[in-house]
Amino acid sequence: MEDRYSKDQEEIYSHRMKAGKRTYFFDVKATRGQDYYLTITESKRRPGADPDGPASYEKHKIFLYKEDFNKFIDALHDAVDFVRDELLTEEEVAELDRPRPTFDSEQARPDGQAPDGQANRPAGHDPAPDLGESTY
Q1: CA atoms within 13 A of residue 81's CA, in its CB half-sphere
Q2: Residue 72 near residue 63 (C-beta atoms within 8 A)
Q3: If residue 82 lies in a helix (H) or strand (E), which one and from where to where?
Q4: CATH top-level class for 3-98?
Q5: Residue 97: left if φ>0, alpha if ψ -120 to 50, beta else—which one?
Q6: Which end of the chain is more exposed for a tag (fewer CB within 10 A), N or C?
Q7: What does the alpha-carbon distance between residue 103 and residue 20 come to, in Å, rounded to a whole number?
Q8: Distance (Å, rounded) from C-alpha 30 to C-alpha 38?
């Protein structure tokens, strides 16, 4: 299914985030008409039927178009705030808020290359702006 999209898109930026048994991919792409969109892919490794055979990957993908970025961020903040404020204990919130170590994929590589997922950033690209007091 993805092959039919590849003719009309140019990948501009890609970032991989490992999270336990899952990996998330954030890819910014552009159509031939320079309409920008984001794909968020969740990938989870599934062992094959044969233990010595190849594994498969279960993938789920969201296409998010530029005109919906702000609405998506607002809805995500609202949902996370609800979970934090209404469903989690104080201890669970404290655990979420504690500083996290930097993962190897986010550190500069010894060969001087950009960290994983940052090599495709356009020249002059600055990190995302601060979205407020939120910790997520």
Answers
A1: 9
A2: no
A3: helix 69-82
A4: alpha beta
A5: alpha
A6: N
A7: 12
A8: 9
Residue 6 pLDDT level (bands cut at 50, 70, 90): low
Length of the chain: 136
Structure token pair of residue 80: 């996370």
Quick one: CA torsion of 67, 42, 91, 75, rounded to 10 degrees?
20
Distance of alpha carbon 2 from alpha carbon 82, whole angstroms: 34
Extract the tokens encoding 86. Answer: 């209404």
C-alpha span between 42 and 117 (Å, rounded): 15
pLDDT in tens, 59-73: 999 999 999 999 999
Tell me how far apart the alpha carbons of residues 23 and 41 are, in angstroms, rounded to a whole number.
Answer: 8
Q: What is the residue extent of each domain of the chain?
A: 3-98
Return d(Cα 108, Cα 118) in angstroms, integer. Answer: 10
Residue with tokens 């062992």: 47
Per-residue pLDDT of 15-28, as tens digits, reads 999 998 899 999 99
